[in-house]
Specification:
Region (Disordered): 23-75, 89-119
Largest sheet: none
Number of domains: 1
Radius of gyration: 73 Å
Number of strands: 0
Biased composition (Basic and acidic residues): 32-72
Order of helices and strands: HHH
Structural class: mainly alpha
Helix content: over 70%
Strand content: under 5%
Distance between the termini: 231 Å
Biased composition (Basic residues): 103-119
Shape: rod-shaped
Length: 202
C-alpha cells in the first residue's frame, strides 16, 4: 500500500503539470525575491540618499551655523557700536530732556504754588471781609436792639429819670448849706460901693 502511494506521488512529481506548477511557483518566488531585493535596494538607496542628504544637511547646517555665528558676531559688533553711539546720543538727549522737563516741572510747581497762595490770600481776605461784615452787622443789630429796647422802655425810663433828677435836686437843695443873706440889698450895695472904696483909700 505504501509502495503504491509512493509510486503515485513520484509519477505525479515527474508529470508535466507538476513541473509547470513548480516553474510557476519558482517564478513567483523569484519575482518575490526580486521585489524584496528591489525593496531592500530601494530602502538601501533611500537610506543611503537619506544619509548623504543628512550628512550634506549637517555640513550645510554646520556651515550655516558658522556663518550665522560669524554674521551674528559681526552684527553684534555693529549693533554695539551703533548702540553705543545711539545710547550716547540718547543719553545726551535724555539729559537735555530731563533738564527741560525739570525746568517745566519747576515752573508748573511755581505756578501751582502761586495759584494756591493767591487762593489762600483771597480766601483769607474773604474771611476777613466776612468777619468784618459780620461784626458790622452784629454791631448794627446790637444798636438796633438797643434802640428798640430804649424805644420800648423809653416812657417809663424817662419818667423814672425825671423823678430821679427831681429827687436828687431836691435832696441837694435840702442838704446844701444855706447862703447868708446880705445886710444891704443889691441896689443899696451898688450905691454904697464907691463910698467903700473911698473909705478904704482914705
Amino acid at each position: 500500500m505504501k509502495e503504491e502511494i509512493v509510486s503515485c506521488v513520484k509519477s505525479y512529481m515527474n508529470s508535466d503539470s507538476f513541473m509547470k506548477i513548480r516553474v510557476r511557483k519558482s517564478k513567483k518566488t523569484k519575482v518575490k525575491t526580486r521585489d524584496k531585493q528591489c525593496k531592500k535596494g530601494k530602502k538601501k538607496d533611500a537610506n543611503r540618499i537619506r544619509r548623504r542628504r543628512s550628512a550634506y544637511e549637517n555640513r550645510r547646517k554646520l556651515k550655516s551655523k558658522r556663518e550665522i555665528s560669524s554674521a551674528k558676531k559681526e552684527r553684534r559688533k555693529m549693533l554695539t557700536g551703533l548702540r553705543s553711539a545711539y545710547e550716547n546720543r540718547r543719553k545726551l538727549k535724555s539729559k537735555r530732556e530731563i533738564s527741560s522737563a525739570k525746568k517745566e516741572r519747576r515752573k508748573k510747581i511755581r505756578v501751582r504754588k502761586s495759584k494756591k497762595t493767591k487762593v489762600k490770600t483771597r480766601d483769607k481776605q474773604c474771611k476777613k471781609g466776612k468777619k468784618k461784615d459780620a461784626n458790622r452787622i452784629r454791631r448794627t443789630r446790637n444798636l438796633e436792639d438797643m434802640e428798640q429796647y430804649l424805644h420800648y422802655i423809653g416812657g417809663g425810663a424817662g419818667a423814672l429819670a425825671l423823678t430821679g433828677v427831681a429827687a436828687a435836686s431836691a435832696f441837694y437843695l435840702a442838704s446844701r448849706p444855706q447862703p447868708q443873706k446880705p445886710l444891704f440889698p443889691l441896689d443899696e450895695q451898688c450905691i454904697l460901693q464907691p463910698v467903700r472904696l473911698n473909705f478904704y483909700l482914705s
